[in-house]
User: Which sequence fits this backbone?
């Protein structure tokens, strides 16, 4: 059993969860950014993320689904925390609002920062976006580690204010 599987097994045993999980890192092309974003999930404000719908389509990947579990990895592939998707929505880039930007929890948490950071990051990996670009918005809750006590699928340590 590797480190990620052992991390999941510890959560699953404590929470009584028998479900699949996916290991993932944010900003997989930048280990430093992956760690920074993963720590924002584990330690605080990040309770949402966004991707470009065309990437899912091009790679033949299904959209995240409510109830899906994710082991969030740092830039070196080590587990930081576990999240569970609570909501998924398709929305045009230009229709992303201040509330979502705050929930994504990056930078100063403003919509202006969110737009600038996403345009810059996506351009760095060869994806140009405009206001009509279809985005996949995903909200999640952190379920492990649980800062409020034992892990439980019905009482996670950090709740998602959007749900």
Assistant:
């Amino acid at each position: 059993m590797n480190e990620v599987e052992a991390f999941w097994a510890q959560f699953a045993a404590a929470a009584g969860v028998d479900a699949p999980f996916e290991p993932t890192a944010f900003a997989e092309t930048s280990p430093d950014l992956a760690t920074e974003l993963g720590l924002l999930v584990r330690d605080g404000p990040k309770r949402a993320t966004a991707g470009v719908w065309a990437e899912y389509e091009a790679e033949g990947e299904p959209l995240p689904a409510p109830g899906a579990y994710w082991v969030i990895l740092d830039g070196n592939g080590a587990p930081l925390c576990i999240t569970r998707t609570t909501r998924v929505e398709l929305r045009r880039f230009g229709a992303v609002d201040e509330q979502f930007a705050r929930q994504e929890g990056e930078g100063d948490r403003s919509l202006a920062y969110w737009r600038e950071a996403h345009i810059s990051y996506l351009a760095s990996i060869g994806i140009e976006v405009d206001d009509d670009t279809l985005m996949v918005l995903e909200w999640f809750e952190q379920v492990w580690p649980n800062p409020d006590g034992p892990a439980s699928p019905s009482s996670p340590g950090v709740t998602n204010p959007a749900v």
